């Protein structure tokens, strides 16, 4: 399927879902002067191409700490280790990079004991793991709503995408209905109120109140997963930056406005800012580094690592 077959209505639908994964089709239909049935058909067609709308808990609002793990493995073992990590319920994405010897993994840890069990016990004892570095995500500037973008799409609101590990708000307490809703929305973020009500054994009005509370409290994000290659982007790249402390926030917030960047976070470690960019080809990546990153203040060093394979992506944090 070539991205050129995605017409203006398809791309408007994708963009609108990126801004609000549960937006009514009737609103999109009014915006584009088409029938609601036409929008529903286009949505189902995009689903056959891999589109997913997923309800995801916001880690920091549930008392979870997010970590980025960077593993170096022998070439014959990286794929198998990535598959094992992908099966863990506390990982949200796993990717292979750098010739198949480097592996990145996002980990959601509720306690120090959960974190240490993996970092200090299991991984160090895993054969063919050559090194492990763990980076705590201090603040996520962008990355909670989508794995794709297109440069002609309007920038999203940064406030809607931030999952800040530094939030001062107390973790939100979840009841049984909340947990059922998270489970159902992880399967389909656009599940209807009657479907959610049946799963939770509650009335639709009660479910709507729960959804309003979870979204209003910043505990639920609706994420959009769509293959960037269908939009003409064939080069996903991890970008590690070392930024002077005085410029860290402004650089992170600036990256969040760049349509090339799907994820950016301030982290602990030698590189204090990490980003994931989606580019059309190597020339597009070069131009981005030269014309966008190169002009930002406080950049001391940059390291890039093209993604070879995404083993797991957009899995929900534990609720």
Walkthrough of the structure:
This protein has 319 residues and is α+β, with helices and mostly antiparallel strands. It folds into 2 domains: 1-49, Winged helix-like DNA-binding domain superfamily/Winged helix DNA-binding domain (Arc Repressor Mutant, subunit A, Orthogonal Bundle), CATH 1.10.10.10; 60-157 and 227-312, Alpha-Beta Plaits (2-Layer Sandwich), CATH 3.30.70. It is built from 10 helices and 10 strands. The strands form 2 sheets. Strands 2-4-3-10-7-9-8-5 form an 8-stranded antiparallel β-barrel, surrounded by 4 helices. Helix 2 packs across helix 3 and helix 7 crosses helix 8. The two termini are 36 Å apart.
Q: Write out the strand line-up for the largest beta sheet, numbering strands in chain order.
A: 2-4-3-10-7-9-8-5
Q: Helix proportion of residues, in percent?
A: 25-40%
Oligomeric description of these chains: single chain
What fold name stands as the CATH topology of the largest domain?
Answer: Alpha-Beta Plaits
Radius of gyration: 20 Å
Helix/strand order, N-terminal first: HHHEEHEEHEHHHEEHEEHE
């Amino acid at each position: 399927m070539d991205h050129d077959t995605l017409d203006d209505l398809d791309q408007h639908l994708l963009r609108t879902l990126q801004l609000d994964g549960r937006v009514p089709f009737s609103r999109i239909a009014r915006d584009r002067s088409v029938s609601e049935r036409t929008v529903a058909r286009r949505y189902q067609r995009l689903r056959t191409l891999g589109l997913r709308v997923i309800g995801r808990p916001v880690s920091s609002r549930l008392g979870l700490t997010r970590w980025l793990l960077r593993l170096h493995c022998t070439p014959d073992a990286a794929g198998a280790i990535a598959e094992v990590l992908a099966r863990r319920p506390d990982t949200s994405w796993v990717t292979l990079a750098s010739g198949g010897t480097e592996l990145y993994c996002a980990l959601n840890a509720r306690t120090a004991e959960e974190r240490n069990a993996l970092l200090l016990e299991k991984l160090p004892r895993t054969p063919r793991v050559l090194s492990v570095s763990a980076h705590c995500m201090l603040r996520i500037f962008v990355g909670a709503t989508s794995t794709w973008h297109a440069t002609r799409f309007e920038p999203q609101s940064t406030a809607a995408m931030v999952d800040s590990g530094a939030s001062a708000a107390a973790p939100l307490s979840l009841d049984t209905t909340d947990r059922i809703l998270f489970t159902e929305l992880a399967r389909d973020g656009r599940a209807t109120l009657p479907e959610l009500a049946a799963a939770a054994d509650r009335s639709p009005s009660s479910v709507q109140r729960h959804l309003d509370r979870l979204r209003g409290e910043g505990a639920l994000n609706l994420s959009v997963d769509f293959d960037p290659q269908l939009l003409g982007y064939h080069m996903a790249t991890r970008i590690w930056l070392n930024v002077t402390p005085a410029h860290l926030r402004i650089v992170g917030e600036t990256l969040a406005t760049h349509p090339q960047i799907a994820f950016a976070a301030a982290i602990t470690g030698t590189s204090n800012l990490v980003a994931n960019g989606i580019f059309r080809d190597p020339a597009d990546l070069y131009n981005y580094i030269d014309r966008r990153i190169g002009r930002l203040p406080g950049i001391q060093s940059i390291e890039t690592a093209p993604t070879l394979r995404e083993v797991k992506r957009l899995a929900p944090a534990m609720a």
